[in-house]
Write a structure and sequence with these properties.
The complex is a heterodimer. Chain A is mainly α. Chain A has helices at residues 2-24, 48-53, 58-77, 113-121, 170-196, 215-227, 261-276, 284-309, 313-322, 326-337, 345-364; strands at 33-35, 40-42, 81-84, 87-90, 131-134, 139-142. Chain B folds into 2 domains: 2-89, Nuclear Transport Factor 2, Chain: A, CATH 3.10.450.220; 95-146, Archaeosine Trna-guanine Transglycosylase, Chain: A, domain 4, CATH 2.30.130.10. Classes of the chains: A mainly alpha, B alpha+beta.
Chain lengths: 365, 148
């Protein structure tokens, strides 16, 4: 029995080995084409088995995929390997298949102003050397760019030219001229770009170098000019008869068209309720502001009187110090007291305030 | 097209409330459907939610009108009530004035109604009250703000 079992086991092991080998080797009539750079295997064998399979060739497809993948992996195992952080890695060769374009072909750009001019005049670009011999530093320097050969802003000695103002800073003049050239170049570059993409430069929207501007364009240009200061136009005075610009405020925001209908109904009913309540509603903010303003005026008047009479430290300090505690409590008291009698405000307020001042006096002590 | 702002709603309600008073909440809160006010080209339209959803599919510049036009907001944001609102104001009117048949035509052509032309009038109508004018056949003619 045991011997039989051992024999059976051995036979089974042998059969498994053979099966594994069989699995690894795949027989194909036509060899596959491999592009290992893209991990691509192309099978040109005619799919006779698939055609024979019928409506749902799932099993056949799976077998085919397994076989082709096995062949690809076999190829990968033949590549030179290297070890990267305890992992065995195969180095893939360069991909041979050319992938199609991801994005469409770029459309031809319109010629820049210089290119148009050069074409017109027949100017061809002259081939120039990259390096030029610089006498001053005694070495080969670039024609243009960082540390170039003849950089007139870097000269240490500039003779004042014949007709120039002796107090003028020639160094600063050269640096300024360079900045202007750079700015002009940048502007031209942006203009060329705008022409290529058929867009408008935002800074020059509506502004043309020559006339022929409509009234609106002139207005817009004026607005842009006014806002182009360091303080964004905050301290620019207007001309005597100039009107404030229309539509330069924030855009209004409205409720959405299909908002919450229930909420809309509720707010409208609330509005109706307020309208129908027949009592003049007390606007607390306005009332407290009015109260505070009147108190301020009182304080100012008192201070003026005291400074006229002479110095009385206590009064001024007390008045100044206690003021912060005063208004909120006063406002609170008043809300309860003045339910519907806003019209009788001032005399009542005066009365309350006198009382308040008395209280303040007591607190001071 | 957009809903009315708080300010605009308040102005409009104040105007309408002159004619129908507290019954305005019956217009806002109706048992038979959700109706709402929408503003389009300065005009206020009273429209059911169903029709509003359909009208939203029309572009703003092509949309002429929807629902019932109650009135419009003038350039200085005052609300002017239109005759098309009469169908909704008449049933809820608080103060009514009936005109005799003889004076009716004259009134419709814009002339004043004399005391002899006045048929009936609700009790306790104050001076300068907003009223709805009816003919003797109980046909609402106009909503009017009149002086004695």
């Amino acid at each position: 029995m045991e011997g039989q079992n051992v024999e059976e086991l051995l036979a089974k092991a042998e059969r498994d080995e053979a099966e594994k080998l069989q699995r690894i080797t795949v027989h194909k009539e036509l060899e596959l084409e491999f592009d290992l750079g893209n991990l691509l295997a192309s099978d040109r064998n005619p799919p006779t088995e698939l055609r024979r399979a019928g409506p749902s060739p799932e099993a056949e497809l799976q077998a085919l995929a397994r076989d082709n993948t096995q062949l690809l992996i076999n190829q990968l195992w033949q590549l030179p390997t290297e070890r990267v952080e305890e992992a065995l890695v195969a180095r893939l060769p360069e991909p041979t298949t050319r992938l199609p374009r991801e994005k469409p072909v770029p459309r031809p750009r319109p010629l820049t102003r210089w290119q148009q001019f050069a074409r017109l005049k027949g100017i061809r670009p002259k081939k120039k050397t990259n390096l030029v011999w610089d006498e001053v530093s005694g070495q080969w320097r670039r024609r243009w760019g960082y540390q170039r050969a003849r950089d007139d802003t870097k000269e240490w000695l500039i003779e004042v030219p014949g007709g120039a103002d002796p107090l003028e800073d020639q160094f600063a003049k050269r640096i300024q001229a360079k900045k202007e050239r750079v700015a002009k170049n940048e502007l031209n570059r942006l203009r060329n770009l705008a022409r290529a993409h058929k867009m408008q430069l935002p800074s020059t929207a509506g502004m043309h170098p020559t006339g022929h501007q409509s009234k609106e364009e002139l207005g817009r240009a004026m607005q842009v000019a006014k806002v182009s200061t360091a303080s964004v136009g905050r301290f620019q005075e207007r001309l005597p008869k100039e009107k404030a610009p229309r539509g330069s405020g924030k855009k209004r925001k409205f409720q959405p068209l299909f908002g919450d209908f229930a909420a809309e109904k509720k707010s409208q009913l609330e509005l109706l309720r307020v309208m129908n309540s027949k009592k003049p509603q007390l606007d607390v903010t306005r009332a407290t502001n009015k109260q505070m303003r009147e108190e301020d005026q009182e304080e100012a008047a008192k201070r003026r009187k005291m400074s006229q009479k002479g110095k009385r430290k206590g009064g001024r300090q007390g008045a100044g110090g206690q003021r912060k505690g005063g208004p909120p409590s006063q406002g609170g008291k008043r809300k309860g007291g003045l339910g519907g009698k806003v019209n009788s405000g001032p005399p009542r307020l005066g009365g309350k305030r006198k009382g308040g001042q008395h209280q303040r006096g007591k607190r001071r002590k | 097209m957009r809903p009315l702002t708080e300010e605009e709603t308040r102005v409009m309600f104040e105007k309408i409330a002159k004619y129908i008073g507290e019954n305005l909440q019956l217009l806002v809160d109706r048992p038979d459907g959700t109706y709402c006010f929408r503003l389009h080209n300065d005009r206020v339209y009273y429209v059911s939610e169903k029709i509003l959803k359909l009208a939203a599919n029309i572009s703003g510049d092509k949309l002429v009108s929807l629902g019932t036009c109650f009135g419009k907001f003038t350039k200085t944001h005052k609300f002017r009530l239109h005759i098309t609102a009469l169908d909704y104001l008449a049933p809820y009117a608080k103060y009514k004035v009936w005109i005799k048949p003889g004076a009716e035509q004259s009134f419709l052509y814009g002339n004043h109604v004399l005391k002899s032309g006045l048929g009936r009038i609700t009790e306790n109508t104050c001076q300068y009250q907003g009223v709805v004018v009816y003919s003797m056949a109980d046909v609402p003619l106009m909503a009017h703000n009149f002086l004695y």
